[in-house]
Amino acid sequence: MRSTSNPAFRNLPRGNVGYGQYGPNTGFNQPEGGFPGYAPAPTDRGDDRPMTVDDVVVKTGISLGVALVAGVITAIWAQTQLITNAFGKVTGFTGALIGVGIAGLIVGLVLSLIISFGQKASGPLTLAYSAAEGVFLGALTGVLEYFLPGIALQAILGTAGVFVAMLVVYKTGAVKVTPKLTKWIIGAVVGVLILSLLNLVLWAFGVDMGIRSGGTLSIVFSLVVIGIAAFCFLLDFDMADKMIREGLPAKWAWYAAFGLMTTLVWLYLEILRLLSYLNSD
């Protein structure tokens, strides 16, 4: 398989896993009626049958639904408490909210490492990761929504818009996922990570690079990161497509869903950050 910027799609099992007597399955670009010479995969063999596009769509939808439910519940809780306690009385609650947000972030990070490096095609782990990220993003969104009403809906619509747009781009072949493009995107992702870590280290020593302080440079940097995250979807779609064509078992649709969720979380977080810059006084 071609390399990808998303660690969830690296070092996947190769070969005709799960082909059996049915021949290879097809992916996002499958011609109507299938390919000549190959019988369709059976639908009654559970996770042993080759994965399909429907498997990826359903698993990704379930994972996204879990993240949304967890996020909405956490955001509503944060909103209710902030309104109830009002200003000057939220010191204790603020600590609890920060703790909940950080806990979600840490749990999500640990699960992502387990899934990515352990090559775990697991529904429970993927859903647990989605729930943890939902709690983290919900806590953050709840606070921002309290001070900047409407930012949550804008971020959700923005994320959905970018996702749909990149899916259309991939499906129509407007942008081909070539080795050169893949290397460029991976290089861009690594560059953003290095720059972000450097900014964090310098910030700890009182040095502000200006890429996360809310100024013009911060807005430009966020726009660049959003663009890179959007292009990562092309690699994610391509990797999921290859997993399907290579006939990986249906359970690997959970792994594909996890990979797409990691990019969705990153994109939503960056769009939320950009909107906070644009709406701040």
From TrEMBL:
Residue stretches spanning the membrane: 56-78, 90-115, 127-147, 153-172, 184-205, 217-240, 252-269
Keyword Cell membrane: no
Keyword annotations: Membrane, Transmembrane, Transmembrane helix
Location of the region described as Disordered in the Swiss-Prot/TrEMBL record: 1-23
UniProt protein name: Uncharacterized membrane protein, YccA/Bax inhibitor family
